[in-house]
């Protein structure tokens, strides 16, 4: 559990002891809420009536799809950082997963967050499935993953100091409520103890469609849904060329991030043979919608090429009148031609396109921003390390140029082999005459340069490089979180996985 040290510090175990920072109130920006949530909530203030009407407009041609993505372009002064982090929820007495219902379940946790901290419920039918801030207030959202993983989808923020404050506020709130409900929160990449049949299912309608479809397209899709957790970062781009360069760099370096954040070496109480089982599971989830996007490195890459890729990824559902209609495996191209089975003569809206893009799961996903998707879930220190790592590389021109020089001659085969080998070997993965550990050091050096150039300082005049400390320690020592967990398991834990819920919980 979290423990306080002298001098206003908190202990992060192998993540090092970092100073706790008390930050003033921050004016948050609105987060992106999926279109179906905005339609369900009459009071949602994220879009004006005119904007909502535009999102619901019928798609006339493929150019509308391209324009929708291109509308995400922003001047550099408006680039923001959005961080999402998931946590496993467990009973602190029995160490069992927490179901949705009951006086001390997930629903009760959300109800108490509403009562104590002024969150507002987002519902499907009578079920609370997410939380948002009251109308007129800026902030992120809290949502549920399929197996009850508890996620904060943070607001788009100017700098990592603000992300640190947002993360701190969120964790303080859930720990406060969790203590009274005997609920704890665990930050790793894969459920270390529970079998798949022990995991409760959350009452979100889209997950029913995915649960039915996943076993038909891969062997690990249900594990992905119900037993993995991640930290992700969403970042902006300024133009089509800027998007392409950032996409290429972040795709090439995503296995490096996977290695640095590897934290899922257990399955059902025993070592699973991988440093990041979460990352390995994605390799056999649904290969039509996952992977390293080799076409992104080909000549002519741009918005239109990504649209072509997305059109070829099978659909999951169509959302109509509060319901998710199962069309899994069907073609969005057929939908655009009015030939979608069950929707003959009906044409998609921009809302449908936005929903479809959320069902693509490559290592880096393009919507109206870029999503970094390669990291395992982690504890307090590494949550803020991920946005620092990527903002340093992608948000400074000199750093981005250096990163591109680092990866530009990597072949598709080399990038693919990194993606294949890193889940098992992490920092020890060989690459040419070196290793991923050396690549990680190089990437961290570039990120540090970029963060220094950004010159975003906190009240103590510290820049954002302070958040790289846990990663620099991991790369410097050549020891991942998984390495540390495995050592504890074989040593002081005496092969009893239950200790992870005490020593590595928030």
Automatic annotation (TrEMBL):
SUPFAM superfamilies for the chain: Glutamine synthetase/guanido kinase
Domain of life: Bacteria
Keywords: ATP-binding, Disulfide bond, Glutathione biosynthesis, Ligase, Nucleotide-binding, Transit peptide
Enzyme class: ligase
The EC number(s) this enzyme carries: 6.3.2.2
Catalytic activities: L-cysteine + L-glutamate + ATP = gamma-L-glutamyl-L-cysteine + ADP + phosphate + H(+)
InterPro entries (UniProt xref): GCL_bact_plant (IPR035434), GCS2 (IPR006336), Gln_synth/guanido_kin_cat_dom (IPR014746), Glut_cys_lig_pln_type (IPR011556)
GO process annotations (BP): glutathione biosynthetic process
The protein's annotated pathway: Sulfur metabolism; glutathione biosynthesis; glutathione from L-cysteine and L-glutamate: step 1/2
Any Pfam family: GCS2
Gene3D superfamilies: 3.30.590.20
GO MF annotation list: ATP binding; glutamate-cysteine ligase activity
Family of the protein in this entry: Belongs to the carboxylate-amine ligase family. Glutamate--cysteine ligase type 2 subfamily.
Role, per record: Catalyzes the synthesis of gamma-glutamylcysteine (gamma-GC).
Oligomeric and partner information: Homodimer or monomer when oxidized or reduced, respectively.
The protein's name: Glutamate--cysteine ligase
Organism whose genome encodes this protein: Hyphomicrobium denitrificans 1NES1
């Amino acid at each position: 559990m979290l423990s306080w040290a002298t001098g206003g510090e908190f202990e992060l175990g192998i993540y090092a002891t970092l100073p706790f920072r008390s930050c003033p109130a921050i004016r948050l920006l609105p987060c992106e809420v999926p279109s179906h949530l905005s339609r369900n909530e009459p009071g949602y203030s994220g879009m004006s009536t005119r904007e909502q009407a535009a999102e619901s407009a019928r798609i006339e041609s493929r150019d509308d799809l391209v324009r929708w993505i291109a509308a995400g372009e922003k001047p550099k002064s408006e680039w923001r950082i959005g961080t999402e982090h998931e946590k496993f929820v467990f009973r602190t007495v029995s160490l069992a997963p927490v179901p949705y219902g009951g006086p001390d379940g997930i629903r009760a946790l959300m109800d108490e967050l509403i009562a104590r901290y002024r969150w507002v419920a987002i519902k499907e039918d009578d079920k609370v499935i997410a939380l948002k801030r009251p109308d007129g207030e800026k902030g992120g959202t809290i949502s549920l993953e399929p197996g009850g993983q508890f996620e904060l989808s943070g607001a788009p923020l100017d700098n990592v100091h603000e992300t640190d404050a947002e993360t701190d506020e969120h964790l303080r709130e859930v720990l406060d409520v969790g203590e009274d409900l005997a609920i704890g929160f665990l930050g790793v990449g894969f459920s270390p103890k529970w079998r798949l049949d022990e995991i409760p299912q959350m009452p979100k309608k889209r997950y029913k469609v995915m649960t039915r479809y996943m076993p038909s397209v891969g062997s690990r899709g249900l594990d992905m849904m119900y037993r993995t957790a991640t930290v992700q970062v969403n970042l902006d781009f300024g133009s089509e060329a800027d998007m392409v360069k950032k996409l290429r760099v972040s795709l090439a370096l995503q296995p490096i991030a996977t290695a640095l954040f590897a934290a899922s070496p257990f399955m059902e109480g025993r070592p699973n043979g991988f440093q990041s089982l979460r990352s390995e599971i994605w390799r056999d989830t649904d290969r039509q919608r996952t992977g390293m996007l080799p076409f992104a490195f080909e000549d002519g890459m741009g918005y239109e090429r990504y649209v072509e890729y997305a059109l070829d990824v099978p659909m999951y559902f169509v959302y109509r009148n509060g319901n998710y209609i199962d069309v899994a495996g069907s073609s969005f191209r057929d939908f655009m031609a009015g030939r979608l089975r069950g929707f003959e003569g009906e044409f998609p809206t921009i809302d449908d396109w936005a929903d479809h893009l959320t069902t693509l799961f490559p290592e880096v996903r393009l919507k109206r921003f870029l999503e970094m998707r390669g990291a395992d879930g982690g504890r307090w220190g590494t949550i803020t390390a991920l946005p620092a790592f990527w903002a340093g590389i992608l948000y400074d021109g000199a750093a981005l140029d250096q990163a591109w020089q680092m990866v530009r001659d990597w072949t598709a085969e080399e990038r693919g082999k990194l993606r294949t080998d890193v889940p098992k070997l992490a920092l020890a993965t060989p690459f040419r005459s070196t290793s991923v550990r050396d690549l990680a050091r190089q990437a961290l050096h570039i990120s540090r340069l970029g963060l220094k150039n950004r010159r975003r300082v906190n009240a103590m005049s510290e820049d954002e490089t302070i958040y790289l400390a846990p990663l620099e320690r991991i790369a410097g020592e050549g020891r991942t979180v998984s390495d540390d967990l495995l050592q504890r398991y074989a040593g002081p834990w005496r092969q009893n996985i239950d200790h992870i819920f005490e020593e590595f919980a928030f």
